[in-house]
Structure formats: C-alpha cells, structure tokens
Amino acid sequence: MALTIKTHPLDRHLRTDRIPTLYCPGCGLGIGLGAMLRGLQKRIDEGSISPDSVVWVGGIGCSARLSFYVNYDSAHVLHGRAIPFAVGVKLANPELTVIVVGGDGDIAGIGGNHLLHAARRNIDIITVMFTNFVYAMTGGQVAPTTPLGVRTTTTPHGNPEPPLDVVKVVSSLNANYVARASITTPHYIEQYFYKALGMRGFRFIEVVSTCPEVYGRHIGLRDPVEMYNELKKRVTYKPRPTLEEAAINWEKGIVIGEYIVRDNPGFIDFLRGGNK
Amino acid sequence: MRKVFASGNIAVAEAAMTAGLKFYAGYPITPSSDLMEYLAEELPRRGGVVIQMEDEIASINAIIGASNAGVKSMTATSGPGLSLMAEGIGLAVITETPIVIAHVMRAGPSTGVPTKTTQSDIFMVRWLTHGDYIIPSFAPWSVQEAFDLTIKAFNTSEKLRTPVFILSDAILAHVWEPLVVKEPGEVEIIERKTPRSKEGYMPYLPDEDLVPPMAPFGKGYKVLVESLVHDEKGYYAPNNEKYKQLVTRLNAKITRNIDWLFEYEGFFLDDADIVLVAYGSVARTVFALAKQLRSSGLRAGLFRPKTLWPLHEKVIRERIKGRKIIVVENNIGKLALDVERILCDREVYKAPVLNLESPTLKEVKEAVTQWL
After folding, report:
1. Best label site of A156, A254, B124, B256, fewest CB within 10 Å?
2. What whole-number distance in Å separates Cα of residue A188 and Cα of residue A256?
3. What is the mean pLDDT of residues B84-89?
C-alpha cells in the first residue's frame, strides 16, 4: 500500500512538531490563523514580503499563543505587553514586518493603554485582536468585551459593565487601518490581513471569534456548532460601515467591514525625517 | 578619549553609547530623567533611537523587544518606575535578553521624595521579581566609575545574556565631576554570541559556558522568545526536569563568572582593626571618615564593593579581616545583613544614616562611633 503523507498547504507556516495545539474543539482561533496565513502566503508569493522578515508577537492567553505555533521569528511575552515589545522590535529594525496577535483581554484589557498609544503614534505594526467576549485561558472570567448582563465566573450575578467598543476607540486615534471580520467570514480575515501587510502605520484587525468552552457553554449554547451558527446569523458585512455601527450587539447584529482606511505617514516615516 | 565635565547620569549615557547602545525607551521620573534627555539629544546623532513610552511597563518591554531584534538597548528609572518594571525584568531573565537598566535611587517607599537620595533599593534590584534568578548589579561611587561600570554592565549583559543593573542614586546622578570618556576601540566591548549555523538552531541551547548563542529576529533563524518555562527549543515545558535544568542554568551562568563580575576597592585593609563597609555615593563620606580615624590613631580600613550582586563571599571573607566590621549605608541596614551572614564569626554592626542628603562626615562619624 502506498504511504500516505498527510500534509497541509499551510504546514510550512507552522511549527508542526507543536501540533496538535492546545485549543479546544470548536475554537475559532484555527480558522482565524489559517486565514491570516493564507493572506501572508499571498504576500510571500508575490514577493512583497520575505518570510525571514516576519516577526509574530503574542502576550498571554489562548489567542496570544498563536505566536508560538507559527514557524517564524516569534515571541510569547507578558500579559498585555505584546504591543510595547513589538514597538521595540520595529524601532530596532524597521525592515521587519511585525505582527501582534492576542485576545481582547490581552490587547484591550490589560494592554489597553499600549493599544491607545500605538494607535496614536500610528506605529508601523499590525495588531490582530481576537474577540471572544471572555477570558478564556484563565477559565471564563469577565472581559472588557463581555456583553452587559452576561454571567461569567467573576460576574456570577451578571456583568454590570458595558463592553468596550475597541473598533471605535482605535478608530478615534491615528490608526491607518481598522477593520473587523469574524471567524464565520474567514475570506475577510484573509483579505484584510493581506491588505494590512501592504500598508504602513498602525493597522488593527478585530476578529470576532467563538469560545465554545467557557463562553458559549456558559451562555447556554451547548455545542460549538450551535455557537458558530448563532454568531454567523448575527454577522453582517458592510463595505464601509460607519463608526456608529461598530458596537458589537448580540441582539442587533455585528457589523464587519473596513472602518478606517488611510495612508498617513507612519511613525517610522517621521523618525526618518520624511513626511511623505 | 576626551575629557569632559559631567554628571553621573551623563556618564552613564556616554558609556552606554560607547558600549554600542542603539535603542533607549523610557518614561520620565526624577532623578533619572535627565539621563534620557541627554540621550534624546545625542543618541539619534549616533544612529540610535530614543522613545518616550506611555509608561515604565511599556519601556522595559520595548527594550526587550529591541534587544531581541539585535540591538543593544537600555532604560533608566527611579523608585516607583522600577516597581512597574518588575515583571518585564523577569521576562528578560527567562528569555535571556541582554538589557541594561540604570536605577537611580531616590527615597521611598512609594512616591517618597522624588528629588532626594537614599540607598534603599539595593534589595529591590536583588529580589525585584518573582522566581529564582540573580541579576548582576553595579554600584559606582563617582562620575568616572559610573562610566566605567556602565561599560561593564553592557559587557556583562551581552556576555551572559542577562539583564544588568547600574545602581546609582540622586547624589551621583547630579554631582558634576571630571570625566574621561573613552571612545569605542579604547575600551573592551563585548558583543553577544551569535549562532554559527541556522541548521538545528535552538534559541536556548547553551554552549559550554551555559550561555546560548543569540540569533536576532529577521535573519531566518526562526527564533522563539518564550516567557514560559521552556526547553532548549523554547517550547513550553511544564515539567520538573526542564524547570530545574533551566533555573539552575540561569543562575549558574552568573555565579560561574563571579571572579569576573565581582569588583571592589579596599583602602587600608592590610592592618585594619576596624573595617568600614560602604558602597555608592555614601562610601565617599565613609572614605573620608576612614582617613580621619586613621589619623587619630585608629587602624580603620574601608571595603567598598562595586558589584553588589552577586557578592563574592570568598573575597569578602579574605579581604575583610579585623576585630569589628561596621556597615555604613543610607538605609535601615541591608547590605549589613549579608555581611553579617558571610562574616558570621566576626562582630558586624549596622550604621544606618537614613538621610535624604549626602550624609556629612559628622553624621557618618556619629553613626560609626557608637560601635567603636
């Protein structure tokens, strides 16, 4: 019998000896990473990015761990501190393509201040934030994006805090690119990531994701497929949504699309004395 | 080589540039701020970058990122700033990232007295963050020594892939003295080891000297910088064997080099009956006291460690010989605890001065004479 070698077209991007990942069945992160890698592959194929120049940085959490499954220069650093680490990398060697990956807790919660200042500076890095409405790795505690009233392990009487609209916050600063996709629309993740890789300045992509284990299960969506289908039902694509449409509203729907697209000089341009 | 008139903060900044500094990230805090201001003026002219980050947490993480991208990087801070940097410095320890932190001591706890000095933080730089580690720390007493020990700090960080502290204080930061600035080529500058081959490269696989060669980002090595307890590849290894191996090596790579790391200066030690132990700016006054005691007929000596951590216990036992040992420091008596432990068979006394200014000779004399 012929030997069947099981490989995947994206294997070259992964530290395959680390597979299987620690992700739970039904987790959205695999879909998200796959889409990002396809976007990156296109850039590599067209010769606009060399794989050796790509650096992935993650803080702490399920999403941040994507940084150590990829077969690139990568760093898995402190909770909330992926962005400042990435800023140091980029300023030390502006030739690098620096990608930050993390969850909403890592990027917008503990790391929120760094997110603001990276966007304000329009620093030349890409940040991909996976929003799953919960602190997943630590067991389902409340996150800055948890909807009002939802019971989590640290809000057993219902979340009394209105969630943070991260897309709106980042858009209010100097970021050159702010887009939102969902793991139910992987083609948009791929398209936005591909686009972001070709831009300068601060580029921010929010990926609305699923955590069937400690979010879906806790809000009564009993299996991953049910959670995926519920999210899919609520996601609406708009080519250029307004910021008023950016709030994530489980009842009214989640609007995905490109919120901000501009080409202002990035931080590196200013450092180099140019203002083109 | 050029002769200038400079402050301790400027000396640290000049030495850092001689050592090859290319990236500085910091957040203003008295009395360290003018070190950053000086670099903001000078470093871009010498091909480097200075950025004022949003806080100390961002600063420490940014310099760790920059170092992993292949450039020498540093920050400077004081009291509360170092408290904020604690977690990041632990990251530099476990990821074996060479960085230099100039900690300019002020009064504490908390906001304390921003513009005034103490020596309260010597245990802070020793036991700042969680886990088991040794961070080499150097404590200069003059502007010239601030320069020389900063060169040594960079060399140590590069040679051993470790964070290193320069432990200055508000007095030394702002005292102006003649300084000989050595240029690159006039002083030994150590660079981090890089791997010989990409084939089979593992970011945490040590050589004989227990230090792994360090590949920068961007050269195709597929480096993995890992904050979790990891194996040689950088893969998370939550097991006893790898944990023990990693932590043992992180500490042993420092202690094995103690003969090279530990520097001190001794005055009148050979026939000393009473040995004063002091470091940093306070040692300047204690030196004057040792001379005065000698001229009044007492056989006094001074032992001044320039390296505070790790202490070379063998050297201390050999060099401090005398009936009485008196440790003079501007805190409640911290180094004294270690001196007492190391010289357990001798009389060791604490002579704290607790003074927001540089203590006067009279004040130091009062603190010491109670034990004479």
Report:
1. A156
2. 9
3. 98
* B320/B277 Cα distance (integer angstroms): 9
Dihedral, CA atoms, B203, B205, B207, B210, nearest 10 degrees?
100
Q: In the structure encoding, which two tokens stand for residue A176, read together?
A: 């050159």
What is the C-alpha separation between B291 and B297, in angstroms, rounded?
Answer: 10
Q: What is the rounded CA–CA span in Å between residue A198 and residue A263?
A: 11
CATH number for region B1-261: 3.40.50.970
Tell me which residue of A200, A170, A186, A178 sits closest to A267, measured CA to CA: A200
Instruction: Determine the Cα angle at A50 with ends A94 and A189, to 5°.
Output: 90
What value, to the nearest 5°, has the Cα angle with vertex B347 and ends B343 and B349?
100
Q: CB distance B62–A117 less than 8 Å?
A: no
| Domains B1-261 and B265-370 equal at CATH topology level | yes
Reduce the secondary structure of A163-230 to three states and give it as a string. Answer: CCCHHHHHHCCCCCEEEEEECCCHHHHHHHHHHHHCCCCCEEEEEECCCHHHHHCCCCCCCHHHHHHH
**Quick one: CA dihedral B159, B60, A61, A29, positive or negative?**
negative
Query: Which residues from B are below 8 Å from A95, CB to CB?
Result: 218
Counting residues of chain B whose pLDDT is more than 70, the rounded percentage is 100
d(CA A30, CA A19): 12
Give every CB contact of residue B176 below 8 A, 6+ residues apart in sequence.
Answer: B5, B6, B7, B143
Residue A276 has pLDDT above 50, yes or no: no
pTM: 0.97
Three-state DSSP class for residue A48: coil
Q: Is the peptide bond before A160 cis (omega within 30 degrees of 0)?
A: no
Higher pLDDT, residue A4 or A107: A107
Q: In angstroms, rounded to a whole number, what is the distance separating the alpha carbons of residues A120 and B172? A: 36
CA B150 to chain centre: 8
Which residues, 6 or more positions from A127, have their beta carbon under 8 angstroms from its beta carbon? A83, A99, A100, A101, A102, A107, A115, A118, A202, A203, A204, A205
pLDDT in tens, B50-61: 999 999 999 999
Q: Please check the confidence at residue B105 and state whether its pLDDT lies above 90.
A: yes
Helices marked H in chain B: 8-19, 33-42, 56-68, 79-94, 143-160, 170-174, 240-255, 258-261, 282-295, 313-319, 335-342, 361-369
CATH number of B265-370: 3.40.50.920
Bridge pairing between strands B137-138 and B307-309:
antiparallel
Residue A135: helix, strand or coil by DSSP?
strand
Q: Which residues of B touch A70 (CB under 8 A)?
A: none
Domain A23-266 has CATH 3.40.50.970: yes
| Helix-helix angle A186-197:A29-45, to 10 degrees | 40
Question: What are the boundaries of each domain within chain B?
Answer: 1-261, 265-370
pLDDT tens sequence across A100-125: 999 999 999 999 999 999 999 999 99
Structure tokens at A209: 């994701």
Q: Cβ–Cβ of A89/B54 closer than 8 Å?
A: no
pLDDT digits (tens, 9 = 90+) for A215-264: 998 899 989 999 999 999 999 999 999 999 999 988 889 999 999 999 99
Q: Which of A68, A78, A91 sits opposite B66 (nearest CB)?
A: A91
Q: What is the pLDDT of residue A274?
A: 57
Q: Say yes or no for a CB contact (<8 Å) between B225 and A74.
A: yes
Record: contact A91-B68, CB cut-off 8 A:
no
| Averaged pLDDT for residues B233-247 | 98
* Chain A environment of B230 (Cβ under 8 Å): none
pLDDT computed for residue B203 by the predictor:
98
